[in-house]
Design brief:
Elements (H helix, E strand, L loop, with lengths): L1 E6 L4 E7 L11 E8 L5 E9 L2 E9 L4 E17 L5 E4 L12 E16 L5 E8 L1 H8 L7 H8 L4 E2 L5 E2 L2 H11 L5 H24 L10 H16 L7 H8 L3 H12 L3 H19 L4 H7 L5 H12 L3 H21 L1
Antiparallel strand pairs: 1-2, 1-6, 3-4, 4-5, 5-9, 6-8, 6-9, 7-8, 8-10, 8-11
Helix pairs in contact: 3-4, 5-6, 5-7, 8-10
Length: about 350
């Protein structure tokens, strides 16, 4: 499988990768960093994780003027795509989809010889994460589960390019969390390969869950209301520490409370209150894992004024107290450090 990305006018190679298509669980996962600067403010930074049958691209771009990028993948591939930026104009051969990207959305697609052109808007920070899998690697993860995504699997069998979902879907908290873990991974050697592959499997589960919990047509959510619900979700994602009340959120997005509550549950598979709790608990977990913060500090940064209320919510969500989680996390970190030294 060959992967190539090129910035046009002037023509500048960004990505040029060639890997085998087979799945070899013992193959080494290598990393490369691409950094290209055209002017003081124009920059491309791309981090690549590469092994047989797998390429992970974590890319950021910024330009003073609109630019065009071509992207090609030779041979069959399945791509788990995570878009963090709106208004990227997209033209893909063999695949019919939305013309412009939407912020914080994801999808999965299969293609045989992928060719696309992306128009990058000026003065916009571009960020995307793409996990490109050979067909053999993909089926090693999902085990050709026809019932789980029957139509998509049949399209792969007949080499028919297609999306798994009819449109890009908004990130769930779980998808945000796992993509963050992948981006911030600092493990090395064999541990890194095991960790990244496990996170790809976890991401695939969350993507399939998001697709299978889409609102059905009987929910009668029109496009205007759907966009307002996306706006509500974005407000909560941006500041879950100081979240508005339900009436305040309703006024902010100009949608009545009944439609907000019913539509949010239909679109995102959870209530507004449960979604806020999930965001706060994921953030608390991240803080406990990444640094030695106290329980009271984490409670405050997650929007709780009372530590006991935070502790009760944490235990209800994870099944054990934050104090116990913190102790177990510290022990695990010490174990991983020791294991990495042995490897």
């Amino acid at each position: 499988m060959k992967i190539k990305a090129t910035l046009l006018t002037p023509e500048t190679p960004i990505i040029k990768i060639q890997i085998g298509d087979k799945y070899y669980p013992k193959s080494i996962l290598t990393e490369e960093i691409i950094s290209i600067k055209n002017k003081d403010s124009e920059k491309i930074t791309s981090r690549h994780l590469i092994t047989e049958g797998l390429v992970l691209l974590d890319t950021q771009m910024y330009y003073d003027t609109s630019k065009t990028v071509t992207f090609e993948i030779e041979e069959e591939s399945v791509v788990m795509n995570f878009i963090y930026t709106s208004n990227i104009e997209t033209q893909i051969e063999q695949l019919e989809g939305e013309k412009y990207s939407k912020e914080n959305t994801h999808n999965i697609f299969y293609t045989n010889n992928f060719k696309a052109t992306f128009t990058i808007p000026a003065h916009t920070q571009i960020n995307y994460l793409s996990i490109i899998l050979s067909k053999a690697f993909y089926y090693s993860i999902i085990n050709e589960d026809w019932q789980l995504h029957e139509k998509f699997s049949k399209n792969i069998l007949h080499k028919k390019s297609s999306y798994l979902a009819s449109k890009y879907l908004p990130f769930t908290p779980a998808i945000q969390w796992v993509t963050h873990e992948i981006k911030s991974c600092t493990r090395q050697g064999a541990l890194k390969r095991i960790y990244i592959e496990s996170k790809i499997k976890e991401l695939l589960i969350h993507q399939l869950e998001a697709i299978h919990t889409q609102p059905s047509s009987k929910e009668n959510i029109d496009k205007e209301d759907y966009n307002k619900l996306l706006e509500a979700k974005k407000i909560l994602d941006t500041d879950y520490r100081n979240t508005p009340t339900l009436p305040e959120l309703s006024r902010k997005i100009s949608l009545n409370e009944f439609k907000l509550k019913k539509g949010f549950k239909a679109c995102f598979g959870t209530t507004v209150k449960s979604y806020i709790i999930k965001l706060r608990m994921e953030h608390a977990k991240e803080m406990f894992q990444s640094k030695s913060a106290t329980v009271s500090e984490v409670a405050y940064k997650c929007g709780y004024r009372d530590v006991s209320h935070f502790s009760a919510a944490f235990k209800n969500y994870y099944g054990f107290s934050p104090q116990k989680f913190k102790i177990n996390t510290d022990i695990l970190q010490l174990w991983l450090v020791g294991l990495s030294l042995i490897c």
